Amino acid sequence: MPPTSETLTAERILEATEEVLRRHGPAKATVVDVARALGVSHGSVYRHFRTKAALRDAVTKRWLNRTFDSLAGIVTAPGLDPEERLRSWFAGLFAAKRRKAGDEPELFATFSVLAIENGEAVGEHIADLTGQLTRIVQAGVDAGTFTASDPATTARALFHATARFHDPGYAREWEQPGVEGELEAVVDLLVRGLRARD
Fold first, then answer.
1. Which residues pair with 195 in a beta bridge?
2. Distance CA 163, CA 159 (A)
3. Dihedral angle over CA of 19, 105, 169, 26, nearest 10
4. 146 — phi, psi (to 5°)?
5. Cβ neighbours of 104 (radius 10 Å)
6. At what angle do helices 52-75 and 105-117 cross, to 10 degrees?
7. In 44-78, which positions are buried (b, 16+ CB within 10 angstroms) versus exposed (e)?
8. pLDDT (tens digit, 9 = 90+) per residue, 136-163?
9. Is 7 exposed, middle or buried (0-12, 13-18, 19+ CB in 10 A)?
């Protein structure tokens, strides 16, 4: 039985929107397509998302947040020292981004377009990720493992220094042989620069 507007949730709409984007791409996907996929009127969708732009913003944020959520456990992982946590976080970020690009290249391309259209969502995503890095750097400073006078500035520098391994503009390079080793080499260099001096 198709859902009614009473049982329709924002999450169900976002799931359907992602599927419509997967099938039609960002240029052709419409709110009517989303409503049709859900078996409701387009007015029901608009009760949850006032405009097509608001719906696209929400689905973009949802997609970007999957990466953030997948890394959250590393930030607080028990038993990892700050250096291991930093290395695991960058490896996890690269794996998540590469999986998105490789598993569904059409959807990745679609969301890359939507992310460009929605600079605010991308800015929030980057702030969330660098916030996670800041917590890792701060833990390293607190443990005496890292030296950083300003952990937030250091986190942003680390993020930018590794852009080749998470910025979608480099996605074509992520499947090249040896790319994991290249990431490890960059992170090794960064960790050596962060280590506290005796």
1. 146
2. 6
3. -30
4. -115, 155
5. 13
6. 110
7. bbeebbeebeebbbbbbbbbbeebbeebeebbeee
8. 999 999 999 999 999 999 999 999 999 9
9. exposed
pTM, whole model, 2 decimals? 0.83
Q: How many CA atoms lie within 13 A of 115 on its CB side?
A: 19
Alpha carbons 2 and 173: distance in angstroms, whole number = 43
In whole angstroms, give the CA distance from residue 182 to residue 176.
10
Q: Residue 8 burial (CB < 10 Å; 0-12/13-18/19+)?
A: buried
Name which of 137, 134, 135, 155 is nearest 145 in CA terms: 137
The pair of three-digit structure tokens given for residue 148, joined into one six-digit string? 């950083």
Predicted pLDDT of residue 178: 96
Dist CA 47 CA 49 (whole Å): 6
134 Rama sector, left if φ>0, alpha if ψ -120 to 50, beta otherwise: alpha
* pLDDT of res. 160: 97
- CB of 121 closer than 8 Å to CB of 127: no
**Helix or strand run (H / E) with residue 29:** none
